[in-house]
Design goal:
Elements: E1 6-7, H1 13-17, H2 20-34, H3 36-45, H4 54-83, H5 89-96, H6 103-114, H7 122-131, H8 136-148, H9 151-161, H10 163-186, E2 208-209, H11 212-247, H12 250-257, H13 264-272, H14 279-291, H15 296-308, H16 311-317, H17 323-347
Parallel strand pairs: 1-2
Helix pairs in contact: 3-4, 4-9, 4-11, 6-8, 6-10, 7-8, 8-10, 9-10, 9-14, 10-17, 11-14, 13-15, 14-15, 15-17
Length: 349
Amino acid sequence: MTIAHIEPTPFTPAAWRAWVWPTILVTSWFVIYWNLQPVTDALMCWIPLNPHSHLFNALAFLVFELPKVLLLLALITFVAGVVQTFFTPEKTRALLAGRRAGVGNVMAAMLGIVTPFCSCSAIPLFIGFLTAGVPLGVTFSFLVAAPMVNEVALVLLFGLFGWKIALFYLVMGLAVAMTSGWVIGRLNAREWVEPWVFDMPVAATGDEAQRWQARFAAGWQGMRSIVLKVAPYILIGVGLGAAIHGYVPQDFMVGLMGKDHWWSVPAAVLIGVPMYSNAAGMVPILQALVAKGAAIGSALAFMMAVTALSLPEFLILRKVMKVKLIVIFASVVAVGIMLVGYVFNAVIH
């Protein structure tokens, strides 16, 4: 989704009126969110099931987590839609073009948090960055950070695990993105990009002046578009999380992704690569895995592999880069993700 760049405007009376409905709705959101637990607990009391049964536990997880994740997603995508009026892909290219290695990798990874990105937009973004003069390594820092360390993942992690886990994930995810891009940049890998990519014309940068009404309209539009697109993944993710929470034995998850096995982190990465989902769909699964005894580092490595190393994304990127570069990209990012998993397992208890 591409949103036109909007210049800042002064707070006129009309601009202040534009804040009325967003303020009311956000206030209502907080009231609903903070009362969600008692409401769902009361609802489950009416369910004619044994409260100690596997089905009851799975259903309780589903009834609470599904609206919780959707509420978190709706709020953050609205805010992100407003923020993205300042950070369009065109503006991002302009900021990164000509940046030297190091500084460019840091900027690209940071911008990946607030710039819209999904696997379907991998090719146009990749082409647009390179044709605008953004170095290859800097481009890869952005491609790693955007799907893995985006605002949806951070807010959901904060809501489900607390600020410490979310902050640590942010720091380590950005480190993986910066380091991966820097390493690929040092390899001078432009020859492994398909030649036709560099012949594409550079897109013009939008510069449309609007008021706050337009910013909020962009937020609503982004929220509707993303929630509708992501909702099936969330439903599947929460459903799988509920099944894990209710039916998977704790000893099994400890044996597969526990701290006691050195191979649990690499195994989690390998299991995640063939899969495809986004952060919103993976966080509920992550929560269920950890609740069943999986080490937080192993579970996070699994989540990162699914979002940043998915096989479908590699198939899409094959159209713009050669197999050798895809293998290098996957190998560098996989090593970084495994290091993150080991660090989390060592630090978080």
